[in-house]
Specification:
alpha+beta; Diaminopimelate Epimerase, Chain A, domain 1; 273 residues; 2 domains; eight-stranded mixed beta barrel
């Protein structure tokens, strides 16, 4: 039996499995089996945790399709919430997690039982504008952003997030596997000001590499927030609203680290075959 914890951050759900208790099954196969929404437990990915010191650990993320991702901001926060729960951590306590994108420091802002609010230092974003041509000939303007993993951010005006009359899900799927991204990329669609056109808000939709459309993304929130701040003059403290709920980013421009603050909640503990 494989012990697991299920947690979610704005509906972006993960299983946390301790590496030394995960058995011998190849991790990609195990992830696909556990994450299946009908035949398994169901999740967007598995965070395999090597837990050393009390509030320090190392994680490796496998997406639901079994592929390895460098990092998930939401997944990292979910692991931090579980470690916080197990170590009886409270506001002000920090949890250090080594990811494939580097060390991330997660500070507990608030806690209510299994629910946490956590601020994570997410590294220094790197971005540049780029044009893409799709198979049908359409030209798409956007920004390539690295937040430890790759993103392509597109600014849109339509309430349904469509691009040139095409649904954002279809555009996201094509760009995810575009030849310019041989390792694939996450794709985000951004409306400035959100639904109510508030100056310090943006609203986003997410097509996640290895998952597809998803309710939330921590690194996607950082990517869209930094692109909006750098390219559209958005406020340095920005509320980013995804279908799963809002998160906050704080970024003061090129060369500075971005801070991501949002919820993480433990859903259940269990065992799987």
């Amino acid at each position: 039996m494989i012990p697991f914890v299920k947690a979610h951050a704005c509906g972006n759900d993960f299983l946390v499995v301790q590496e030394n208790l995960a058995g011998i099954e190849p991790r990609d196969e195990l992830t696909r089996r556990l994450c299946h929404r009908n035949h398994g437990i169901g999740a967007d990915g598995v965070e395999f945790l090597t837990w050393g010191a009390e509030r320090k650990g190392k994680i490796r993320l496998h997406n639901a399709d079994g592929s390895i991702a460098e990092i998930s901001g939401n997944g990292t926060r979910c692991v931090a919430a579980w470690i916080g729960y197990e170590t009886k951590a409270g506001p002000g306590d920090e949890i250090m997690l080594e990811t494939d994108a580097g060390l991330r420091t997660c500070r507990i802002v608030a806690r209510d039982g299994p629910g946490f609010r956590i601020a994570s230092a997410m590294g220094v974003p790197e971005l540049q504008t780029r044009s893409l041509h799709l198979a049908g000939g359409e030209r798409i303007e956007g920004a390539v952003v690295s937040t430890g993993n790759p993103h392509f951010v597109i600014f849109v005006d339509q309430p349904d997030f469509s691009v040139n009359g095409y649904a954002w899900e279809a555009i996201g799927e094509e760009i995810c596997s575009h030849p310019q991204f041989p390792e694939q990329t996450n794709v985000e669609f951004v409306r400035m000001g959100g639904a109510d056109r508030i100056e310090d808000e943006i609203e986003i939709r997410i097509y996640e590499r290895g998952v597809g459309p998803t309710s939330s993304s921590g690194t996607g929130t950082c990517a869209t927030g930094s692109a909006a701040i750098a390219l559209r003059g958005a406020a340095p403290v920005l509320r980013v609203i995804a279908p799963g709920g809002p998160q906050t980013v704080e970024w003061h421009g090129p060369g500075s680290e971005i801070l991501l603050t949002g919820p993480a909640e433990l859903v259940c503990f269990g065992e799987a075959w």
